[in-house]
Amino acid sequence: MANLTVHSLQVRAVSVPLRRTVIAAIGRFEQWPLVLIDITFEEGVTGRSYVSPYNASALPSIVREVVAVGDLLKGRATGAVDAFDASAAALNPIGETGISAIARSAIDMAMWDALGRAANLPLVELLGGSIGTFRAYNSNGLWRHDPNTLGEEAAELLADGGFTAVKLRLGNEHLADDLRAIRSVRDAIGDGVDLMVDFNQAFGVGDAIRRCHELDDQGLYWFEEPIDYSDVHGYAALARSVRTPLQVGENFYGARDLYNLAAAGSVHYAMADLERIGGVTGWIRTAGLAAAAGVQLSNHLYPEFAVHLLRTSSTAHWLEWVDWADPILADPLRPVDGHIATPDKPGAGIDWDEEQVARHLLHSATTG
Known about the structure:
Elements: E1 4-24, E2 27-41, E3 46-51, H1 59-73, E4 77-78, H2 80-91, H3 99-119, H4 123-126, E5 133-138, H5 150-159, E6 165-169, H6 175-189, E7 194-198, H7 205-215, E8 223-224, H8 232-241, E9 246-248, H9 255-263, E10 269-273, H10 274-277, H11 279-293, E11 296-300, H12 303-310, E12 319-321, E13 339-341, H13 354-360, E14 361-367
Parallel strand pairs: 5-12, 6-7, 7-8, 8-9, 9-10, 10-11
Antiparallel strand pairs: 1-2, 1-4, 1-14, 2-3, 5-13
Helix pairs in contact: 1-3, 2-3, 3-11, 5-6, 7-8, 9-11
């Protein structure tokens, strides 16, 4: 079934507790806001997706924009790619990034999920790939808090699913605090574990060059976003200055952002966030560009969809494992031996735990 016709939408905003408080340069979060999308199509199938906009204050605006994009497509038999491009054209006057991009991504993911359900195929098979597993690193902790507690937490993260890689957040004001954090984690996990670090855009270019030079001998897997993600020339300067590979991309709004950095020699590794990159359609386009540029591509969040997409991307690198949506999922993914398996279920394999959705519900809107 190549085309689907939107009949109605249900869009619900929830806020769920995090097992570990997120503390980084971007802010502090003890709850995680999510927007859940159910699109019912006239062909008798329902597609599901979610997006997570960090700030709960943005939830009402995103709910309204998702409904607006759904209404734009209502009653029109269309394919997922056509719907994606049609909504981009309609939203061009107000801008295609920010909330507009998040809404389009949410609709796109739900449409691809529905296409898989209609074909009775897992999303990975619908896209030409195969059921299987993908290697992951545990990103559910190691935030910027007391370094004395980080070692114990790192050991817990490795044990929670047999991981051999974890991610630590750095970017403290003083080098000594970053070094203490690294030492605490290394003392607990040893040298054989891959340790990624994320600065969450904490520095200006000069300070980033200084800090990355000072940490270049620490055996770290990558330096993630030391500076503003859009600073193409700054990343080019960093790329020329450090030995540790740079990782950038979770804030990319579409494939063109990756193109600009790749063309400038500013990126070693890239990652894509499904709510910003354009959902499944945006990922496919970005993955093709990454393959042409020879850039290894990882996901940012959304492991439920990402595991399908990574198994169909030729330069796929790592899966970032987070369990932040688990409280409202009926059958959450579970890591085994540091790998995540694609569910052998139609679509992305997402279903809601309706009791928990009702418990954490903040806003809702229904059309049709």
